[in-house]
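Hi L.,

You mentioned the student needs an example of a multi-chain input paired with its predicted structure. This one should do, with 573 residues in total across all chains.
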Amino acid sequence: MNGLPQESFRRLLPLLLPFLALWVLCWVVPLFWGVDLALQNPDSGFATSENREIEYVGLENFQRTIGDPKFHKALSNTLKYVFGSLICIIPLAFVLAVALFELPRLYRGILAFCLLIPGLALPGAMSKLFYLFFHGREGALNQYIIIPFGMDPINWMMDPDFIMPSLVIQSVWRWTGVVALFFLCALEGIPSWHFEVAKLEGMKSLSRIRLILVPGVRNLALFVGVFLVVDGVASFSGAYTLLGGSGGMMDAGLLLVTYVYQVAFPGGSGRFDLPGAAAMSLLVAPFVAGFLFLVLRVRLPQAKV
Amino acid sequence: MSRLLSILMLFGFVLLSLYPFTWMFFSSFKTNKEIYQPSQLLPEEFDAQAYGMLLDGKFVDFTGSLWQSVLIATTQALLATLVSALAGFVLARYSFRSKAFLIGAALLIILIPRQALVVPVFEWFHWLGWTGNSFSLVLCGIASGLGVVFFSQSFRQLPVELMEVSRLEGFSPLRSFLLVTPLFAPSMVTYFLLHFALCWQEHLLALLLLDDSSLTLPLALAKLSDVSHRAPESIGMAAATLSFLPIVFLFALFFRKMRTALSQLSLS
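Structure written out for the whole complex:
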């Protein structure tokens, strides 16, 4: 099969074993544990608590979750967040990468590193910064963008219409530079004869972009897309610090993982609904995984990953 | 014309990336009143007491958290690089029975975002009695789908001849792996950095798996911004600045290697 040496599984085992063991320990067991948990009565308590009586209630938790309007809200918020960020980040990062690519090599590195910096900060620190610097009545967004256009200052943290855009802006600000760096490296990996041919053919810059630059970044764009979707679905820290663990005004900023956390470990009320939270995870996780798997399969047929 | 435009745009973005952090740095010397005026960059007088209070552990044990984070992120990233590289090497360079099945199953499950499974992971680790120490946090982040995808892409660039030679010599797979690893140092460094950055930012799992005595940085920052502590804003800014320095330093150190590896990766 495509020229790869055939080996017996036993001889490969030493190399695969660490991965397989951890895979079973941290993914397969929790998955089945979660299924088991999701079928239990939420009043049973923790697995380790004394005199615990497990009572299986069938699919009741799933039904409860599907009927939960807050779950719908969290789901649609997360979808908006993921696709909103993806649609802004990838084109913007591509444009930036092309702009960087036109520069002499020395400046490229320095500027690319500067762009990378927001991606390195802790989401919690970023939220703090956002809260103090960009938002608020006197914040930079209002000061430099909204007021000069003659609009009323926006309360970015409280107005339900603007919480989601503000989370998306935060994610765009954070990741665009990182993605631009990835794309820049991809452009640098394009063999130089491609550009020479383009020159000889007298290619216009638009078709140069379409025929040489875009195919050049396609592989990495895929990797980045998968990364952004996973990060977006899993994002918790930024919104948690920004909104103090709640979903914000009218739950406009409630993300899925935040809601799972809220259901499982409610502050104060003391009714830990772990089965409900598990059911919620299990309703969503397979779709995300399946979607990503299909993307990888379809776009990388030669890769066979 | 268009060239000028693209340079202007670049500088705009660079400014947008750098200025808020400059502001953050200077804000760590400001009073609350000055911080609430975001258009002001420099403080009226430089007052470093926020750093003093932070390092003395007045509100949270900041130095402890810093070490905790460095330790966890370094260990996890090292182990993750090793484990993913081994698995990626096998998947990219060998074919064996039930390979397709293994890849399919492993990838399908591992692409579930880890944070979505946190409740079962928490319960399971609780049952094992592993919660409350940093070892469990390190352990559950090592195997990652991203790593396997990354390395099986990188190892695909290995020349077939090299594998032929090691087969003729009768080398075991492990020996061949050790033979070719030096060629992939840039890829390994790159993945190490990526994983380090992700682990450095991990909040939710740390929140669940660690107890209050050993907080990591994201937890310490969240605790600082908790209103009930009434910590001055400058302390939060100082903490953000200090939590930022180690990772920026690390990336700056290996930036070149990372670029080499990424431009090779895109070829395949």
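You could point out the following to them. The two ends of chain B are 35 Å apart (CA to CA). Chain B has one domain: 60-265.

Best wishes,
N.
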